[in-house]
UniProtKB/TrEMBL annotation:
Lineage per the UniProt record: Archaea, Methanobacteriati, Methanobacteriota, Stenosarchaea group, Halobacteria
Domain Glycosyltransferase 61 catalytic: 199-367
An annotated Gene Ontology molecular function: glycosyltransferase activity
UniProt-recorded name of the protein: Glycosyltransferase family 61 protein
InterPro entries referenced in this protein's UniProt entry, alphabetically: Glyco_transf_61_cat (IPR049625)
Length: 432
């Protein structure tokens, strides 16, 4: 817990209310200012079409675009929550018949996978935002998302906060000489807090960027150094090795400013799953770990416990696990397992149950599985549902009852909840 958080929690309730109100007002003012600068082109940006058509940028496509059509899950009494979650993700390309209760479909367009080479770039700040000689900032450093939560605008705000407003604007307007220079460099910085490894995002969003960097290497014969988060974990380094990265080429980016003669910018496909990317990750990792020796150790019916996590707990987990054990289920904590064991666990699984979380991303190693994702009463996340459909799994969502719904200091997505064992077994009776 940060010192600021401890200070906040030590305040009386009235003071907490005032402090939170002031913080939210300041944050909204910053967001509005940043969006004004972007909307009026005071800060110029480059989107994917700009990268492809720019006369000074080399653009290398390495696969075809994809389109996926999803049928929204239907849960009695929860359809409005599910459909609102889908609409909340503003980058959706086509909601098609989502309003039709009998046929709630929507489509997602996946851009052709590509990597671009930009000349004479200045990178700056904790997220290594990139600036061209014409003072243009590529949006692809944050998945080409310009103006929503978790977007380039949010990353720009974070840069202002941690790199400083004066330093940020100086790097954009007139960066001057940099402290260091890279001849050829790429970045796979995650854009998330240093305390958040984000396993799922890493596996299916960040690792595909390595696929694109490898395509660049084949096309040009150049071998870029790769900028990574300063707090990169051992398991992240292990996965990079599994997909063929020479870890001697990794450089921990501590912030500041640097010049790059040739900046390699791989597409970041954020929750727009390219099947070819997932196939590549699965093949690279499965071929790189000795998972076969673990296959006989695990049940084919697994419950993902989140027992070692500090949020999103099923508070009656023991009761639930005891009930579903009659159906052959065993409880596992993938976050405490070796990577080869995780691959084996999901490789042979045919029914997977658990509270929503990153461990579900390992379903990329499963085949024809039934996925049962457990949620808080008023919360739905599209992430694992869409991934399940892309992978041709059968997906089911169940909603529990809240236990700390009145605590407005906890993000609803992170609140603990309980789930009726009968609700789960009723669904299992239909599946098995």
């Amino acid at each position: 817990m940060s010192s600021l958080r401890r200070l906040y929690e030590s305040l009386p309730n009235e003071a907490q209310y005032v402090a939170k109100k002031g913080y939210n007002l300041t944050k909204e003012t910053e967001r509005s200012t940043i969006m004004y600068l972007l909307d009026t082109n005071v800060i110029s940006t480059l989107d994917r079409s700009d990268l492809k058509s720019h006369p000074e940028i080399e653009y290398y496509a390495h696969d075809k675009p994809e389109q996926h059509t999803f049928v929204a899950p239907t849960v009695p009494g929860k359809d409005d929550i599910i459909q609102e979650a889908i609409r909340r993700d503003r980058w959706r390309d086509d909601l098609t018949t989502l309003d039709d209760k009998k046929d709630p479909k929507y489509s997602v367009e996946c851009h052709e996978p590509f990597v671009a080479e930009l000349p004479n770039i200045t990178i700056f700040g904790p997220h290594a935002l990139a600036r061209t000689p014409n003072r243009e900032l590529p949006l692809e450093v944050k998945a080409n998302l310009r103006d929503r939560g978790g977007s380039f605008a949010a990353m720009f705000r974070s840069t202002l906060r941690w790199f400083g407003r004066v330093n940020t604007m100086k790097s954009i307007i007139d960066p001057g000489p940099s402290d260091q220079n890279f001849e050829v460099a790429a970045s796979i910085l995650t854009g998330r807090k240093n305390t958040t490894p984000a396993y799922g995002h890493w596996l299916v969003e960040i690792l595909p960027r390595i696929r694109r960097i490898k395509h660049y290497q084949r096309q040009t014969g150049k071998n870029p150094i790769i900028l990574v988060n300063p707090n990169i974990t051992d398991w992240q380094i292990e996965t990079l090795e599994l997909v063929g990265v020479d870890t001697s080429n990794l450089i921990k980016w501590e912030g500041g400013q640097a010049s790059v003669d040739r900046y390699v910018l791989p597409m970041w496909a954020k929750t727009k799953w390219c099947t070819s990317d997932i196939d590549w990750i699965r093949e690279q990792i499965a071929n790189g770990v000795d998972y076969e020796k673990h296959l006989d150790r695990f049940s084919s019916r697994i419950y993902l416990s989140r027992a070692n996590m500090d949020r999103r707990q099923v508070t009656n987990r023991e009761q639930l696990v005891d009930t579903i054990s009659d159906y052959g289920f065993e409880s596992y904590s993938p976050e405490s397992m070796k990577f080869a064991e995780q691959v084996a666990l999901f490789k042979q699984a045919n029914i997977i149950i658990g509270p929503t979380g990153s461990s579900f991303t390992n379903i990329i190693f499963s085949a024809d599985a039934n996925i049962i994702e457990l949620f808080q009463p008023e919360n739905f996340i599209t992430w694992q549902f869409e991934l399940s459909q892309v992978l041709d799994h059968e997906y089911h969502a169940l909603f529990g009852d809240g236990v700390d719904e009145n605590d407005n200091t906890i993000n609803p997505h992170h609140q603990d909840f309980c789930i009726s064992p009968d609700q789960v077994t009723d669904l299992l009776e239909k599946i098995i």
